[in-house]
Structure formats: structure tokens, C-alpha cells
Specification:
Layout lengths: L4 H36 L2 H14 L7 H6 L6 H14 L7 H7 L5 H14 L7 H6 L6 H14 L3 H13 L4 H12 L6 H8 L5 H11 L7 H7 L5 H14 L7 H6 L6 H13 L4 H8 L8 H14 L4 H14 L5 H13 L8 H10 L3 H14 L4 H7 L6 H11 L7 H7 L5 H14 L4 H10 L5 H14 L4 H10 L5 H15 L1
Helix pairs in contact: 1-2, 2-4, 4-6, 5-6, 6-8, 9-10, 10-12, 11-12, 12-14, 13-14, 14-16, 16-18, 18-19, 18-20, 19-20, 20-22, 22-24, 23-24, 24-26, 25-26, 26-27, 26-28, 28-30, 29-30
Length: 516
């Protein structure tokens, strides 16, 4: 018996529908059973139910309320896994936003990190939690700060809401070190955030931080120059100083700032005088206008001002060999100053004067690196990263000296793909007897050539390393490289069962991130 095409199509459609329904029914039933276990099971059984819901991803949205309730559980592991599961659900877990925002204040850094991860995965539907995420930019733990930045980016909050929240986070920071992630987050907004920051300059309580952020933005913040020039008249020395630094970072685009900056060379505060002089140098004000004002500062009673003045004299008169010689001698001496700000200024000045090939300069830098002087290392590292591939030959020489290897590997990793010439030496260091060097080499390799077959093999070998620190570096390398292939996932899945809890949690975290 023949069946007409219309009847056949209808039967086929019905069969497919019934097949789909029968395929979905067990999954739905499974999610219901797992959700029920969240309140009936205890210990490892409940954690297993949470993890099973995590594996279901967005399909586990019906479990959102039950998972959110666990964010206040007494057990830290339960709270963290529940937050991770909500992140796997994504936008469908929007009903948990308020409780996730509260979890960003949890005593456990893992719970805080996973709560932020979940808010980021929920995305725009989590915008109400933006202030809570912004507050985490000043968290004591770097992992939490990193997740805060990611979450805030994914929320896509309008600037008129984001900038005030970030400035509030800065104002509540307890230490200067805690503020930098928030400053960087605001700086990433770039020129688009400048109008709001100009508004912030009009608020005395926010003025200091607005200057810091504009300085971080640099040249793209040139439209803020007129407001910054006005801020140079603030009654607080620290605000005048930061406004001058911001103008210096903006550089030649700062417009007609020279007259007011020149006026500040006579400021009562030494820090303001030094900052104003530096800003004049960075703004490329005519040497004829600055040099007469600079001469008296060469013998100023304040050391910072004297150092800045000698730097300025050498910069403004490059043909004056005596002025350059005096400046470099003084700057090298200042590299060992007990004041970190002085050491930082000296390092910046030596880099700015392109003095790397002059006697004593590289030895001075190397000595500070060996002493693990973070201030000088940051300046020198930034200078090398900025030079990129041109700096690689010199960094390769540093890799031959054991005491310089950690620093050199860190710089090469930041340079990234342009540092491919370093791959052979880094590959050799990946087999070093020193576990810290093995870990550092793997991270650098992943940053420079994540898709390279040999690099992938090195990461896989690191995942089998006897040192948990190296295995942890393998997890970070896979996460940093962004590798999402089956081989990367296979390695992470194996590490998710690692005997070291740090490695296990980090691997599970990266697996969750790659699911999205």
C-alpha cells in the first residue's frame, strides 16, 4: 500500500517529535532528581549532585533556586561548587544574581572567585551585581581580582553606571596595592570613559582617583587636559601631583599645560615640583622655556627634585656630554635608594635617556633584578616589553644567567609571539632540575607559541611533572593560551583528578571556563 507524500511527512514529523520527547524526558527527570538531592543528600553525595548539574550546563536552569540556596551553606566546598554550577547554567541562572553578589564577600577566596565567574557567565542579566564585582577589584587575592575584571567586562554595564561604581571601589580601598586592578579596569575603558572621568575631576572626593585613571589611560585621555590643568590648582598636594603626572602621561597631546606646570616648579611640595618637571619633559615643552627654570633645581634641597632636574638637563640638552654624565652617575646611585619611588624614577630616567649601553647601567639594572627589587624590575620589564622583538636578543643573554632567568622568562612571556627566538632556550629550561624554572618556562612557552606542537608537548609533560607547582603551571598555561581543543581538554580533565587540591580546583575552573 502506497502512502501519499503528505501523510508520510506527517508521520515522520510525529515520529521525530516523539523521539525528541523521549530523549528529553530522561534528562529533565535527571535534573529533577539531582535538584532534589541538593536538599536531601549530604557530604560527598550532595557535592556529586552539584557537579552533575554543572555538567548539564544551561539545561540545569530549573535547579537555579536550589543551587542559590546553597551559597549560604556552612560547607565551603558546597558553596564554591554551587556558584560554579550557576556559572555553567549561564544567563538562565539570572534569578541567583542577588545571592551571587552576596557571595562575592564570602570568607573563602574560592567561593568569591566562583561567584564572580558565575556573574560573568550570566552576563548582561547580572548588571545589578556590578557594584559588588567592582568592590572585588580591591580584593587581597589576585585570582579574585582577575575574575572581577572578567565579570565586569561581560556584564556590559553603561559607562554612567560603571565609572561611579569603580571610583567608589577605589575610594574604599585600604592599600595602594589594592587599587591597581580597579585603576587598570577603568583605564581599559579608554577614551570612551574620559567624559565621565572629567566629571569626576569636578568632585573633590573623586578627583585624586580620576587623575590616577587618566594617567593610566595616557594619550587617549587628551580631551581631559583642560580639566587636569585646572586641577593643578587643587589645595591638596597629592592631587596636584597626580594631575601633573596625568598630563605627563598624556604627553604632547596635553595642549597648553606648560605655563601652569612651569609655575608648579616653585611649589612648596617637593613631590609636586618633581612631577611638574617630569610632565614638562614628557609634554615636549621647548627646552628654551624649561631650562632656565630647571637650573636652580639642580641644587634643590630635596633629593627627588635634584634627581628629576639632572634627568631633565640631560634630556633637554642631549649634546651636553657633561650634563649627561652627571645625570647617569646620580641616577645609578639613586637605583639603590631606600625610597622605592626614588628608585622607580631613577630607573625610568635611565630608560628614557637610552643609557643601556653606557658603562655601569646594565650592571646597575642587573644588580637590582638579582636583589629582586620589584620597583626597578617593573620599569625595566615594561621597557623591554614595549621594545618587543628588538629587546629579545638582550633578554636571551639574560637567560644564560641563573639568577636572571625567572625575570627574563616573565618578560618574554609578556612579549608573546614576537619572542619566538627564545623558544629553544625556554624548551631547555622546561626540563631544568629547578621546579620554579620548569614552571616559568612552561608559562612563557604557552604565551609565545600556544599552537606550536612542541610547546603543547611541553605543557602535556608539565601536567605529568612530579612537582605540583609545575602541574599547576600547566593548568595556568592551558588557561592562558586559550587552547580549547580536545587535547587541551583531555589534559585538564586528567588534572581535575590530581592529588593536589590546588591543581584539581584550578583544572576544574579552567574546564568550566572552556565550556562557555
Amino acid at each position: 500500500m502506497r502512502v501519499c507524500h503528505a501523510a508520510w511527512a506527517g508521520m515522520l514529523s510525529m515520529c521525530l517529535a516523539l523521539s525528541a520527547a523521549s530523549a528529553q524526558a530522561p534528562a529533565a527527570a535527571n535534573i529533577g532528581e539531582l535538584t532534589a538531592q541538593l536538599s536531601t543528600a549530604t557530604g560527598e553525595a550532595r557535592v556529586a549532585a552539584i557537579d552533575a548539574l554543572t555538567d548539564e550546563g544551561p539545561a540545569a536552569a530549573p535547579a537555579t533556586d536550589a543551587l542559590a540556596a546553597l551559597l549560604s551553606d556552612a560547607d565551603e566546598t558546597t558553596r564554591g561548587r554551587a556558584a560554579r554550577a550557576l556559572g555553567a547554567i549561564g544567563p538562565g541562572a539570572a534569578g541567583a544574581v542577588d545571592k551571587l553578589a552576596a557571595a562575592t564577600k564570602d570568607s573563602s577566596l574560592k567561593v568569591r572567585s566562583y561567584a564572580l565567574y558565575a556573574l560573568g557567565m550570566i552576563g548582561e542579566k547580572a548588571q545589578a551585581a556590578y557594584p559588588a564585582a567592582a568592590a572585588c577589584l580591591t580584593d587581597a587575592d589576585p585570582m579574585v581580582r582577575r575574575e572581577a575584571v572578567k565579570a565586569m567586562s561581560r556584564m556590559k554595564v553603561p559607562l554612567d553606571q560603571s565609572v561611579p561604581a569603580l571610583i567608589a571601589a577605589l575610594e574604599n580601598a585600604k592599600t595602594a596595592g589594592e587599587t591597581m586592578p580597579a585603576v587598570h579596569a577603568l583605564a581599559e575603558v579608554g577614551a570612551a570613559g574620559v567624559p565621565r572621568l572629567v566629571e569626576a575631576l569636578g568632585r573633590p572626593e573623586a578627583r585624586y582617583w580620576a587623575c590616577r585613571i587618566l594617567a593610566e589611560i595616557g594619550p587617549p585621555a587628551k580631551d581631559a587636559a583642560p580639566a587636569l590643568v585646572k586641577t593643578l590648582s587643587d589645595e591638596r598636594a597629592e592631587v596636584r601631583r597626580e594631575a601633573a603626572i596625568a598630563l605627563g602621561r598624556i604627553g604632547p597631546g596635553a595642549g597648553d599645560s606648560a605655563p601652569k606646570l612651569t609655575e608648579l616648579l616653585g611649589d612648596a611640595d617637593p613631590g609636586v615640583k618633581a612631577a611638574a618637571l617630569w610632565a614638562l619633559l614628557m609634554s615636549e615643552a621647548p627646552a628654551a622655556d624649561v631650562l632656565p627654570k630647571l637650573q636652580p633645581l639642580l641644587s634643590d634641597s630635596d633629593e627627588m627634585v635634584r634627581v628629576a632636574a639632572h634627568w631633565g638637563a640631560a634630556k633637554l640638552e642631549p649634546e651636553n656630554k657633561e650634563a649627561r654624565k652627571q645625570a647617569i652617575v646620580l641616577l645609578l646611585k639613586t637605583l639603590t635608594n631606600e625610597n622605592p619611588r626614588m628608585r622607580g624614577m631613577a630607573a625610568n630616567a635611565l630608560v628614557d635617556l637610552k643609557s643601556g649601553d653606557e658603562p655601569g647601567v646594565m650592571d646597575g639594572f642587573i644588580a637590582r633584578v638579582v636583589e629582586k627589587d620589584g620597583v626597578v624590575m617593573t620599569v625595566v620589564g615594561e621597557a623591554m616589553v614595549k621594545r618587543g622583538e628588538a629587546a629579545v636578543p638582550r633578554i636571551l643573554k639574560a637567560l644564560d644567567h641563573e639568577e636572571l632567568q625567572p625575570f627574563a622568562m616573565g618578560v618574554l612571556g609578556r612579549i608573546g609571539p614576537p619572542a619566538k627566538a627564545a623558544l629553544p632556550k625556554l624548551a631547555a629550561l622546561a626540563t631544568s632540575e629547578n621546579k620554579d624554572l620548569r614552571a616559568g618556562a612552561v608559562m612563557a612557552l604557552a604565551s609565545i607559541a600556544p599552537e606550536d606542537a612542541d610547546v603543547q608537548a611541553r605543557i602535556a609533560a608539565a601536567a605529568e611533572d612530579k612537582s605540583s607547582d609545575v602541574r599547576l603551571a600547566a593548568v595556568a598555561a592551558l588557561g592562558h593560551s586559550g587552547a580549547a581543543g580536545s587535547s587541551a581538554r583531555s589534559v585538564l580533565e586528567k588534572l581535575a583528578a590530581d592529588p593536589d587540591s590546588r591543581v584539581r580546583e584550578a583544572a576544574k575552573y579552567e574546564l568550566s571556563a572552556k565550556t562557555k
